[in-house]
Write a structure and sequence with these properties.
Elements (H helix, E strand, L loop, with lengths): L2 H10 L3 H4 L1 H10 L14 E5 L4 H12 L3 E6 L2 H15 L4 E5 L5 H14 L5 E4 L17 H17 L9 E6 L23 H21 L6 E6 L7 H6 L1 H7 L6 H11 L1
Parallel strand pairs: 1-2, 1-4, 2-3, 4-5, 5-6
Helix pairs in contact: 1-3, 4-5, 4-11, 6-7, 7-8
Length: about 270
């Protein structure tokens, strides 16, 4: 066992240090991680949801710098177009597009998927990054609990509608930004959506994240030839606007130890 293995085991035993920037810094140095700037993504078509802030924006910025053709999908047209223009100016990449959909609205997901299909005959990478952690329970117009709609049902529909643009001679990838928070909840399909009486935002979030991982496994079973590869990943504990807004106490206590958005997004870019 070498030094890197010992450090890795030490970080994993109590779990928490592994998720912080301490774990990131130690592992990146001991394992000599290759800089993300070294990866050439020219020619890749990448669809990424939740790309206007936090981890999604950090990943989009790096992939734009690496030359990818990006479709930035978020619910606000104005914000998505502004971020597209900012990323284009920062990276010099003019192959950045937008699509608009609230993943909680299945009609909007259908429309966005159709628009993407019209523009692209092939999609190399589909990234499910958009998330939601709600303090109070509310449902979509379709009667689906909001967290489940945004993180499970909407992404499932988007995947289903884009799959015929994926695969072939070169494998495509579907990447889902899950969370280590899923370890706090098991998956009970009959009770995936919490009711009003027992609702807790963090637990509902954990259930949705657990469901994401299970769905990835089920999707993968449909492609034994690995023409489309499915990955779920955990970004570690990262300092993002979403974390600050949804988990203010967690953000305050662990603030100095939180990873940057770029550090949290690095595995996403590496897998892409």
């Amino acid at each position: 066992m070498n030094t890197a293995d010992v450090v890795d085991a030490t970080l994993e035993w109590p779990i928490a240090p592994s998720f912080t920037k301490v774990g990131y810094d130690l592992r990146s140095r001991l394992d000599h991680w290759r800089p993300l700037d070294d990866y050439d993504q020219t020619g890749q078509v990448v669809v990424v949801t939740g790309a206007t802030s936090g981890l999604g924006r950090a990943a989009a910025h790096q992939m734009a710098a690496n030359g990818a053709t990006l479709v930035l999908l978020s619910r606000s047209r104005d914000k998505t177009e502004r971020v597209r223009d900012e990323l284009a100016a920062a990276t010099g990449n003019d192959r950045l597009e937008t699509a608009v959909a609230d993943l909680a609205d299945l009609d909007e997901v259908e429309a966005a998927a159709a628009a993407i299909r019209d523009r692209h005959d092939r999609i190399d990478v589909l990234i499910h990054n958009a998330g939601a952690l709600d303090a109070e329970r509310h449902e979509t117009a379709a009667g689906i609990e909001h967290t489940v709609a945004v993180q499970v049902v909407g992404p499932f529909l988007l995947t289903a509608r884009l799959l015929d643009r994926m695969g072939g001679a070169e494998p495509s990838r579907v990447l889902t930004m899950s969370s280590g928070g899923m370890y706090s909840a098991g998956l009970t399909v009959d009770h995936l959506e919490m009711d009003d009486e027992h609702y807790g935002g963090s637990e509902q979030y954990a259930r949705a994240k657990r469901a994401q991982v299970t769905l990835n496994e089920l999707w993968a079973e449909r492609f034994p030839d690995r023409s489309v590869v499915f990955h779920a990943l955990h970004p570690g504990w990262a300092d993002t606007p979403g974390v600050e807004r949804a988990l203010p106490r967690f953000h305050t206590v662990l603030g100095p130890l939180l990873r940057s958005a770029d550090q949290g997004a690095d595995t996403l870019v590496w897998l892409a």
